[in-house]
Amino acid sequence: MEERITLDHGSGGQLSAELIEKHILKAFPADALHELRDGAIVPGQSGSLVMSTDSFVVSPWRFPGGDIGKLAVCGTVNDILMSGGRPAYLSFSLILEEGFAIADLDAVLASAADCAARCGVSIVTGDTKVVEKEKGDQIYINTAGIGFLQKKTAYTYQEGDQVIVSGSIGRPGAAVFMAREDIRLQGELRSDCAPLCEEARAAMETEGLRIMRDPTRGGLATTCAELVEHTKWGMELDERAIPVDADVQVLCDLLGFDPLYLVCEGRMIAIVSRADSAQLLQKLGGEARVIGEITAAHPGTLLLRTKLGTTRWLRKLSGQPLPRIC
Predict the structure, then answer these.
(1) For 160-172, what is each residue's pLDDT tens digit?
(2) How do beta strands 234-238 and 311-314 pair?
């Protein structure tokens, strides 16, 4: 039977990885692409540049805590930051469905412009296409970004390196799903969609920083699994230390979701030496937590020590429990 693309290929999980490794990387030989970073580090005339690109297809396009315009700017800015860069310029391309309200477009553009201004980046080029009604989902956005390398990081771990997350996990995935399905819970569950400028700056100022990532598609578990796969190191996480807000946990308990695999859009994972972890925690503030450490005990794999005192292996997301988040 002829293989075809499924929605699971865009989940950021196992099928996404197979699509990239077996087909996309096979077609394009560039070394920078094969490093599989959030952004590519490339040479420039007066220093190294960081480049990144992303496409955003979130449904609904407006959700508690943000919209697709804010998400598009944050997503690309954060990818450059996580690659050790200082973002400077963005492209901003729109694919609009026939019938999309001009007032809604203006709201998306204003949101994107406000976020770009707060990040200190300029939107300098773009493109606009319109597709026939029912041939899109109101609005899609593609962005690309360029920044200037500030600190090059690598997968050069050491035994006992600490895994830090900058705040509670899973809010964007939960908030977007609730908006899509019109689920109402007591209180207001809002996405943490935000640029990571201050968090990245604090990490890059830390001497013992190994690497940074933002746990977007596939969530915390998938991102941490990717950070150790194909290396001689393993990672162990402590479930009791991983911050999950009560409203996110309630939604997960009701619907059977695992918060470890929910999208995060305003959180940073940093791996840092044990000696420097306290310094970074202090800079990041009260929500940041040490959630695990690097170990040589089980190379290339991710282990979770559960609240019950047992252990289980965590793998990259399989399937797509929350489609079309980003």
Answers:
(1) 999 999 999 999 8
(2) unpaired
